[in-house]
Amino acid sequence: MGWTRGGLAGAVAVWALLAGASCRGLDPPAGDAEEPPGAGTEAPVARPSPGPPLPPGTASLADVPEAAAVVTPSVVNVSTSRRVEEPRSPFGMDPFLRDFFGFGPGGDAPSRTAVSLGSGVVVGNGGTILTNAHVVAEADEVLVSTPAGREYRAEVVGVDPPSDLAVIRAPGLDAPPLPFADSDAVRVGETVLAVGNPFGVGQTVTMGIVSATGRARMGIRTYEDFIQTDAAINPGNSGGALVNLRGELVGINTAILSKSGGFQGMGFAIPVNLARPVMDSILEHGRMIRAWLGVQIQEVTPELADAMGLAEAEGALVAAVEEGSPADAAGLRPGDLIVSVDGVAVGSAARLRLIVSGAGVGTPVELGLVRDGRPLDARVVLGELPGQEAPRGRSAPRGEEGEEARPLGGVRVTDLTPSLARQLGLPPDVRGALVLRVDPASPAFEAGLREGDVVVEAHRRDVRSAADLRRALEEAPGRRTVLRVVRDGGSLYLALPPS
């Protein structure tokens, strides 16, 4: 199910927010009434015997009020404000109309103050607070208030949009920092509390369970490993705390899945084991410094696994290797399947991205690979992730058209000439078959092929022209078609059904 910041599958909105909603007190279970024993009375009704003791370190439901009392002083309200310019009036250049509509001298557009609310968690002395990046991004002023109503001016120490985390500091704030749990040890079904300021009504505690762990590929942020919970999370609580019944911080609440914009049973928190290195790096360097392998990776679909002769759809498929990167120096190639890092299995591309990013710049790692069906190892010394903007999307240029490539019915291709490469913003040495048209009803479109793609490989053979593509496809009839394409400056593999 695909996520977007404005909606999910055209209707389901992903609202970045955070922990908390009103918490109703739980009445104790009603027991059977006991009558005082006496002559002629029946024996008291037997109560069920207690179950086996909980594992060491596990809290019981009786600890909910105690846990809430411990954590609530460490969760604060975060309010931000920033100046937003209103659209310029079309009459702003006319002196009479400018004055009539209230513009100042020079035709400057009016501005307003945009205010937003969120939550934050005290994680260190001196008023150090962990919250969401989207809570404080582009803020001109940040104010922090405690449950007791005391207010402090805060400064932004650093923001990391790829993880949606930020660190702020409120000097003078005297609140106890929350201890961190080991979020890798969190179990599905474990009771958790969400603490925050929903809808700006004031600090609120809600209770639920951990519904799932390791939620990724949701399209909310670049680095995803969410804890899913059914503890009520509502707008206004971004940056709030998800805690266990021992009063330890498990995660930073960050998003909900909702059709209405309110809580509907699915909330997501960033686990503290992902948040801690981001926080530490921001406190030390003012930003998150991530390690870098230098490959473009993608998930292995069942279709790709079948087409490439893989036993299982697991691991991270290397779609491209960046020139001069650590992966390039170690000899990695497009088509390699990364299955482990330092002996630990990599189940997905999302998991590999998390492992590498937090491994540390300059760290040597041993990659377990599968290349052309054969296992091999590669030692890579990780570099520092360059700060580069994602390439903008492009559409195919109009003009040159080629003949339809068989067996790719509904697909029209042509040679990628130097002039077409310039229009696409590709390096002049890139060669391949440029896709000019893909019929939306064709199997190729369903498999992901799009106009503007450049096919550079088919069935592990280089493609430098439309003729090369046709020959490669004609030599492998009845098999799934595995293509490597260049798109928007990146590279990925596609598995098309047999012709």
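Second entry:
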Amino acid sequence: MKFLLHLAALLTLPSGLSQTAAAQKTAPTIRRLDNTTLTSAEADTFAQKTLTEAHVTGAQIAILNDGHLTWSYAYGLRSRNPDLPMTTETTTWAASITKSVFSTYVMQLVEHHQFNLDTPVAKQLPQPLDAYAPYKDTASDIVNDPAWPSITPRMLLSHTSGLQNFASIEPDKKMHLHFKPGTQFLYSGEGINLVQFVIEQQFRKPMDELMQAAIFAPLGITQTGLIYRKEFAANVADRFDGDEKFHAQTKRFPARAAGSMTTSVEDLAHFLTALFSDAILKPSTRKAMFAPYYAIHGLHQFPLAANEPEGTEAASTGLAYGVGWGLLTRTPYGPAFFKEGHGDGAQNYLLCFERRQTCMIILTNSDNGELAFRPLFEHLLGDTVTPWEWEGYTSTYIEAARKQP
């Protein structure tokens, strides 16, 4: 019935992002961070205009107040030819938001005394890393690095291990340490996948099965998985480039903790509600996950050039990293946690304020999604603290990044 309502809306409205799927949750008002309010109609009108101007093919937005879903809406198209509407339950590629959901699962293992964040990876594997088939060609050098025995899962999950984002971007396609582990920040999907590998070796099961049993199934979130499942087929988003041309279908294989998860904004909202209500982790474990491990000082999360200067945003917001989550430790609204998702034809952002249990999530199936983030978060949530330059959510940064090889 929900799908038929969405389809009816599509058929009766002009083409483009003015098409709005019926909200799954609509409170009369949204409470912003400064305690001012916005009606759901005002939010919808602003979101439609902003997404249309940014040429975002499809988007899902959700806002939580007091730890519960207050408002969610979907805009535009999940696929073309035939044109099908995006809904708040459409499965989309979460990209790197996967990292934070995976890290929450890791903290669940820690809470149950099934995993240790501070025991070096080399000690948790019965064989040298390059003895395993997936790492035979990429880890032959790193295992001989004097710093390798000191690398812990905590360092890997906080992006302070010294590993590049992926070995594939290294000149020799091998893993290398670029600084003493624990002393600098360098975003690394390779490090997240390495934690996945250690856990899979311990439990002798693939990560998609482990997280399905521990997180997704118990929470009853059915449009989420670490790999594509056939039941997603009826409502899954294709992905589109900056010219709104088809880029790819959303079918992620194999399971990768660094970024293979697909989900919907409704499912992520449910996940956050469960996180705040202690249904996933005990309060003490959640506190440990959001404890700052490393204070960040750089101008950009992904530097455009070597030797970039330090950024003022990092200092003013208390930018840091915990276990798998970015942190803002100094804001007028209390501490916050966040995670981005960058992928070809999938740009996403999630931001939550712990004390207020106020969150906003945006998932898009468009390379243009990032262009809409700042106005949407500032207007709908009253967000005045996101470090937009560090995140790379400025038009100047996005243009420069697109020109890089």
